[in-house]
Amino acid sequence: MPQGENPTVGMEDIIRAHHVLKEVIVRTPLQLDPALSARYDCQVYLKREDLQVVRSFKIRGSYNMIRNLTEEQRERGIVCASAGNHAQGFALSCHALGIRGHIYMPSTTPNQKVRQVKRFGGSDVEVILTGDTYDDAFAEAMKACHEHGMTFVHPFDDPKIVAGNGTIGMEIMEGLSTPADYVFVTIGGGGLAAGVGSYVKMVSPQTKVIGVEPLGAASMSEALREKQVVTLETIDKFVDGAAVKRVGDLTYQICSAVLDDVLMVPEGKACTSILELYNDNAIVVEPAGALPVAALDLYREELRGKTVVCVISGGNNDIDRMQEIKERSLIYEGLKHYFLINFPQRAGALREFLQDVLGPNDDIARFEYTKKHNKENGPALVGIELSYQEDYMPLIERMRAKGIAFTELNRDLNLFNLLI
């Protein structure tokens, strides 16, 4: 990718944002991670934006943009559309500055997130629940802007947003005794990567800035491939903090100039990193925040002996999602497999499966007949959890040797989504 200083958001913009943000943010830690450093034979630092006042980096861009509005714009009111971290950063900014804000959120937004937004915004914000999707909420927000002359605060595609995010890059470079060799940063709409990348490249052109996207919503990768911003038809929304169908026009322009590479990480791999960060470091990180750590495996050889920074962009992870996170991780690691199994129609067939087919380290994690009536004549849905990935093929060979008819659901996406 071409390199060079980005003309849209410069050093002065980020320095001004840095002074503005002192009013509201905390300077989050840049922590050396011993476990990751040992694993990759390098120095891995974590920039802990999960410890920010709203548990994500989003306050930086929102506050910087809102703080720079004219008096007239403030009086007319401001608007955002979000079901997540942007809404929280926007709400706290409104409360801190005493500006009336209107937050449009899908009616499907979990109550916990709605309460959190109201807690940060207090009486300075009004939450409007509308429609079933983000697009519905966005359409209503834009309608309100046009009808009442209010200002829309974009989650990522604005120079002030990018400059605010760039202060993370400033803190990273100031926090190291020598410049980082690699900085890994999440890409959703591109505002974080554009800001961090802009500052890092201006002060240390030799530092490699690596953007990381979820595989199921790789809109920046597609834009760079097409050499223009494109809209993805469908996305996997699991990594909700980075699941964006279309990156920003401004952020694409900047990222194409300042990023050295853009990686795509499978959602299951991000889940594994979430669990590892919690088990090894007691860090609660959201899926989008885990992407940079998950991407380290893709650069393992290049990282030896280097100084590496991963931006942990946020920690707003709903505890209700942890079972799904564990499930996705196990499937990605090859440790959990689902089958449709037609057991032979004779007495003792299931007992033989348990005794002769299931390995000594294998567990049945799920078992249910697919028919409500005459169950014994229909296939069974069986979930098997392995202790070791290499136990999978021996399990398959034992089923074949016993003449058991089965379908591997992990390899059939349509059936998997239907039954699991």
What's a quick, concise take on this entry?
The protein is of the alpha/beta class and 420 residues long. It has 18 helices and 14 strands.
Describe the structure.
The protein has 420 residues and is α/β, with parallel strands linked by helices. It is 44% helix and 17% strand. The chain contains 18 helices and 14 strands. It has helices at 11-21, 34-40, 58-67, 71-76, 85-97, 111-121, 134-148, 159-175, 191-203, 219-226, 249-258, 267-281, 287-294, 300-303, 322-332, 349-357, 392-401, 413-419, and strands spanning 30-32, 43-48, 78-81, 101-105, 125-129, 151-152, 182-186, 208-214, 261-265, 307-312, 336-342, 363-369, 380-385, 405-408. The strands form three sheets. It has a six-stranded mixed beta sheet, sandwiched between helices. Helix 9 links the parallel strand 7 and strand 8. The radius of gyration is 24 Å and the shape is globular. It starts with 10 loop residues before the first helix and ends with a helix. The model is unreliable at 1-6 (pLDDT under 50).
